[in-house]
Amino acid sequence: MKHVASTLSALTALALVCAVTAPSAQAATKERATDWATLNGNAAHTGYAAVSLNPANFSQAWQVRLDSTTGSFNIPATGGGRVYISNKPNSAIGILTTVNLSTGATEWTKTIAGAYTGGGYLHSIHSPAYAKGMVYVSTGGHTDAALWGFDVATGTQKFRAPISAQWETYYAPTPFGGSMYMNGGSYGGAYSFNARTGTQNWFASLPQYDEWTPAVDENYVYTYTTKLDVLDRKTGALAYSIADTGFDWRGYSVGCAPVLGGMSDIIVTQYNRLIAFDLNTRRLKWQAPISVNYSEMNQPSVADGRVFYANGGYLSVFNQADGSLLSTVPLQGTAESTVILTKTVGFISTSGGTYAFKRKDPTKTVWSTPAHGQLALSKEGILVIVSADGTVTGIKTRD
């Protein structure tokens, strides 16, 4: 069930769109820059970076052009002073490229060809993830489906861990506690792999849906397909499930990763509903109507007790506690990224450019650049913009 390709406004679009990020608890944390390791930055998929940024310090650091003949590009990841970029699914050849965040120089590029048809065609390659000196990427199809691990400094392949699959498309794997967690399985499921060796820790059977990746914390792995299934992080055993009593089947693609909202809740979207599950009572906490259009991703985000969701021509803001609609902002342009939030500003990329907005008042644009595409914010303070045509722009956000 692919979802919304939200449209956003230049200055309002900015902020809240597919917004991302961290609950009140996160917003209150001390300054702590971290790597943009996976979808929406972290294992909770919040899209929040606990740093304060001053738009007066923003400037373009570098720009480089990648080969776009194999198609456009996935959401990037950062770590170890580099940004990692792969090409889109359904490319004949899979490409994983590493760009130095200080200089913008391409350090190494890996080509991953498929073997299933005998002609080198690869069904798909997905968004990368980073953890402790290694970059990870999954490939899809059947025979070619696998999780790959590479050394970030040299590009040396450390492992290729085969997975069972039937031509699904996956989101970036989720790194946590020395393991990688991901969607997979011939008939649906989740995997855990040792992040250093690629050794399989466990596999858990789940309903057969793609286009998701789990959220992970110290104890559990959270997956949403037709319901919320919570797995033991160490063993993969089912700890408990929470039924989605309003589930409305619309296809076999979820189009959303669970968000750990920080209020003992998980927030997801399902077709035309925004949903919150209460992890304490283990019940559906609330659901709110949303409108949807076609999109690869229908990702909610959380910040300061509010849930942000961009849909159609509007950005809707909901109360995280009860799902009540707080505001709706008219948007212009088409969203091309999730929203990245910091303590002071947020970033959103639309077909009209990439914008920074005042976090407490998303209607106020404080910076913009014509470059647009997928976004990541590195630990070093480089905002990375990956355009569909292969142009990669690095914006310095801190001195």
UniProtKB/TrEMBL annotation:
<feature type="domain" description="Pyrrolo-quinoline quinone repeat">
    <location>
        <begin position="52"/>
        <end position="160"/>
    </location>
</feature>
<dbReference type="InterPro" id="IPR015943">
    <property type="entry name" value="WD40/YVTN_repeat-like_dom_sf"/>
</dbReference>
<protein>
    <submittedName>
        <fullName>PQQ-binding-like beta-propeller repeat protein</fullName>
    </submittedName>
</protein>
<dbReference type="InterPro" id="IPR018391">
    <property type="entry name" value="PQQ_b-propeller_rpt"/>
</dbReference>
<feature type="domain" description="Pyrrolo-quinoline quinone repeat">
    <location>
        <begin position="191"/>
        <end position="397"/>
    </location>
</feature>
<dbReference type="InterPro" id="IPR011047">
    <property type="entry name" value="Quinoprotein_ADH-like_sf"/>
</dbReference>
<feature type="signal peptide">
    <location>
        <begin position="1"/>
        <end position="27"/>
    </location>
</feature>
<keyword id="KW-0732">Signal</keyword>
<dbReference type="Pfam" id="PF13360">
    <property type="entry name" value="PQQ_2"/>
</dbReference>
<dbReference type="InterPro" id="IPR002372">
    <property type="entry name" value="PQQ_rpt_dom"/>
</dbReference>
